[in-house]
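Target protein
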Amino acid sequence: MSGHESGGRRDVYKYTFYAFRSQWRKLPEAERHAGIQEFLGVIERHRRRMEIRTYNTTGLKAEDEFLIWAIAEDVERVIELGTDLANTDLAAFLKVTHSYLAMGKPSQYIPPHEHEQAPPPPGVSKYLFIYPFVKTKAWYQLPFDDRRAMMGGHTATGHKYPTIRINSG
């Protein structure tokens, strides 16, 4: 996955999907509100050290209700965010339904001159579409030129839609 780079920095991306446990909805409204405020406070404190985007996924997937996308310079910051969120009162009422960790770097399939134009920072769009793209051992056993051609087709399709930012590689 190629991503946002700045001065040679390789960013770490963490996508964490959550759902509320059924007990959450049975709590008094004031208790739910306080739990959400504490959780959001942790996110705001960490925004000083990393980029964090949140997305509502309610009604889009049966098992998810919201997503936190964290973009950090190193994995330690991501771990600190996760730890601090897990220590909130709200965490007892949350279930992590999906969790993905990735590192951004220039794609080996795109010529270096195309990397010279820095991509916009991740997460500036109202919507985020994520699909896990796993390159298996069989993928890497294919000749490099075949892999490059396949990735070229992948990015060419994405480039037909200029308002959609591709974040893969």
Remarks:
- Strands lie at 5-6, 9-10, 12-20, 51-56, 66-72, 94-103.
- The helical segments are 22-26, 29-46, 75-86, 112-115, 137-141, 144-159.
- The longest strand covers residues 94-103.
- Residues 1-8, 115-120 have pLDDT under 50 and may be disordered.
